[in-house]
Write a structure and sequence with these properties.
binds NADP nicotinamide-adenine-dinucleotide phosphate; 14% strand; 10 helices; 3-stranded parallel beta sheet
């Protein structure tokens, strides 16, 4: 049996088109368009590329861009002041501080201070705490993208055995919380897990977020399981062998990867809506 491949690229396009329609409807109702502020310190080309692609994607769906670029030698206080201005600016629905920052700037300290209502990356300690407690808040983009893929493919999560390999703040922990919130029985594995293969074989839904190309072998996959490979740029799953046993599987590239920016756009719209209509807004 060959697994059905999940087309993350097409799904991401679909989410982006939906966000574009929802932004237009929001503006039609007399609201300001949502705004996404990005703050980039220094001239790292890869970071500039990430920020540029987020701003471009925002513009495509009608989200206003506030693109702040500071020199490599910008002082910590300067970055702090800009973030405080953005936090107070009602046109700004979401704030992203591109990490890493140059050494004189405490980037993770500053990012942690982004107000939860504008934390469209969903990675501050407050947002992580809200998620861990199952309370409403903005969720991290890559894990939300995974949940969207599972939802659109009608993957049964209620009571399902879900195994997550990886416990990072960026992916492993938040996806575990989201799966738990969807009533899966969740096991979280990491580098000290004993007999990883045996644990993976229990999974109806197996999420690999490790960063070790090909770690997950084909015969670790339960027949018919859903396999989500977060590894990038090379997958954590031995794709060809796993696809022989899985029911549903994400390829790399073209699986989880494209979902991240799509969910960032959705978060920016949700943040704008929650700011304007705090009660009953679309957070989950
Ligand atoms: P990370 O912070 O390095 O965390 C890796 C996790 O894997 C850790 O919890 C680690 O365990 C665990 N691990 C390492 N070796 C292991 C092994 N041999 N067996 C079991 N567990 C092992 O990585 P991350 O930020 O979560 O990213 C994971 C992967 O996802 C990377 O390839 C990254 O590039 C990719 N990623 C993709 C996207 C996207 O497509 N949009 C977004 C984010 C990340 P310990 O905690 O015990 O060290």
């Amino acid at each position: 049996m060959a697994a059905e491949r999940i087309d993350g690229k097409a799904t991401a396009q679909d989410v982006r088109a939906q966000v574009k329609r929802d932004v237009a409807a929001w503006v039609e109702r007399g609201h300001e368009p949502p705004g996404l502020a990005t703050v980039l310190v220094g001239d790292d080309p890869a970071s500039a590329l990430y920020v540029g692609s987020k701003q471009k994607a925002s513009a495509e769906v009608g989200i206003q861009g506030f693109d702040h670029r500071l020199p490599q030698d910008a002082a910590h206080e300067e970055v702090d002041a800009i973030l405080q201005e953005l936090a107070a600016d009602p046109r700004v629905s979401g704030i992203l501080l591109q990490l890493p920052t140059p050494p004189q700037v405490d980037g993770s300290g500053l990012a942690a201070m982004i107000p939860p209502g504008k934390d469209v990356d969903g990675l501050t300690p407050v947002s992580a705490g809200l998620l861990a407690q199952g309370r409403p808040g903005l969720r991290p983009c890559t894990p939300s993208g995974i949940m969207e893929l599972l939802r659109r493919h009608d993957v049964e999560l209620e009571g399902a055995e879900a195994v997550v390999v990886g416990r990072s703040d960026l992916v492993g922990r938040p996806i575990s919380s989201l799966l738990l919130a969807a009533n899966a029985t969740v096991t979280v594995c990491h580098s000290r897990t004993r007999d990883l293969a045996e644990v993976c074989r229990r999974a109806d839904v197996l999420v690999a977020a490790v960063g070790r190309p090909g770690l997950i072998q084909g015969d670790w996959v339960k027949p018919g399981a859903t396999v989500i490979d977060v590894g990038s740029p090379v997958g954590d799953v031995d794709f060809e062998a796993a696809a022989e046993r899985a029911g549903l599987i994400t390829p790399v590239p073209g699986g989880v990867g494209p979902m991240t920016i799509a969910m960032l756009l959705r978060n920016t719209l949700l943040a704008a809506q929650a700011a304007a209509e705090p009660v009953g807004a679309g957070w989950s």
